[in-house]
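Intended use. Records like the one below are meant for learning the mapping from a protein sequence to its folded structure. Do not use them to infer anything beyond what is encoded.
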Amino acid sequence: MGRRGGSGGSGSPERETGTRKGVFSSIRLWRGIAVVLTSAVILILCVLLVNRSSGKDLPVCPSLELCPSDWLYFQRKCYFLSDTEANWNYSHSLCSLHNASLLVIENHQELSFMMKITKQDPWIGLYKRNEEFFWVNGQALDNKLIEVKGSGNCAYLDSKGVSASGCYLTRRWVCSLNIIQVEEATYPGT
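Structure written out for the chain above:
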């Protein structure tokens, strides 16, 4: 009897304490997970409530399908990279069929992004008029943004930046479309 009480009494509380710590740490873990999940559910419900409200004062999230099918999205613009080749003028006409234009590069981030994703030196929306380059939207080229190499009249992207060649040559091309244009085309009258 003494043996049973002595060894059982000294070993049992240590095991119980270790087990209790394990149980309590598991409970804390599950409580933490429950808090995170509850917060996520509340956030999702709030977003759904805002999107379903018809009030004009509450923000509505834009559609997840910002760009047409087979177009890429980057910094509030949609981009189409052609698989076929055409001369500069025909490429420009093909972009116009989608209410887009040949690529107009607006900043260094866009230039860097396009140089990473394009292959085979595609046409962009830059052309020479009276010895100066202009974008297809009518804006003059900012020489601080881009320096055009080559002596041609129509510009294309290459691995080192922007170059110009004869407009009659055939290349792939890049169309660009501002998100505002996409929203207006998708939701007329808004």
